[in-house]
Amino acid sequence: MKITYYGHSCFSAAISGKHILFDPFISGNELAHAIDINSIEADYIFLSHGHFDHILDAAAIAGRTGAMLVGIFEIYQYFTKQGLEKAHPLNPGGQVSFDFGSAKSFASLHSSSFPDGSYAGIAAGFALQTAAGNFYYSGDAAFTLDMQLVPRWAKLNFAVLPIGDVLTMGTDEAIEAAKLLNVTHVLGVHYDTFPAIKLDKAAAIQAFANAGITLHLPGIGTSIDI
């Protein structure tokens, strides 16, 4: 599966001719200054929670591409009230079929509010089952034993996990999460964007390798196959 990384927690998966984009925060990320959001393709945009560093460019990209926004009910309401007609609610525990496959939402242990401070529901992650492979994106998660529920729904090819620590899991907990998820490949996200979440990349890659897991840290704007 082709994965393109756009910095912070934003990435896209190319699946059966569709582009599934997650948590677009690009124009506000100094590390992603070379990325033109007007060049990004999207048929679906999944939003894990309401924090600005996960939804900043969602409306602009959805408005230009006609992509369907997917998120919990409060996020669905937030964007439909802004006039975006293509949106689909998906709360933790729920499952929806799309033309690329199916998506199931899982609760993620993290805070969530919109940029104006209003309630954004609870944070979530998503597991996708597709013909090209299955993966789980945890969103901004703390490590919880609930993660062992995800592979009961789908045998995963890889997981997308935050590794920057302080605001989410760090390296050690992400390794434990990968073990519960039964994956040997992890795309690391949510690191380096802010001073508090600077990552020693070499140390992180080695720590994962010591656990028998490959940690993928592609450069911003680059694509890899997992």
TrEMBL record:
Keyword terms: Hydrolase
SMART domains to which the protein is assigned, alphabetical: Lactamase_B (SM00849)
Source domain of life: Bacteria
Gene3D superfamilies reported in the protein's UniProt record: Ribonuclease Z/Hydroxyacylglutathione hydrolase-like
Residue span(s) of domain Metallo-beta-lactamase: 7-190
Classification via Pfam families: Lactamase_B_3
NCBIfam families membership: PRK00685.1 (NF001911)
GO molecular function, one term: hydrolase activity
Protein name, per record: Metal-dependent hydrolase
Database matches in InterPro entries: Metallo-B-lactamas, RibonucZ/Hydroxyglut_hydro, UPF0173_UPF0282_UlaG_hydrolase
Keyword Lipoprotein appears in the UniProt entry: no
Native source organism of the sequence: Deminuibacter soli
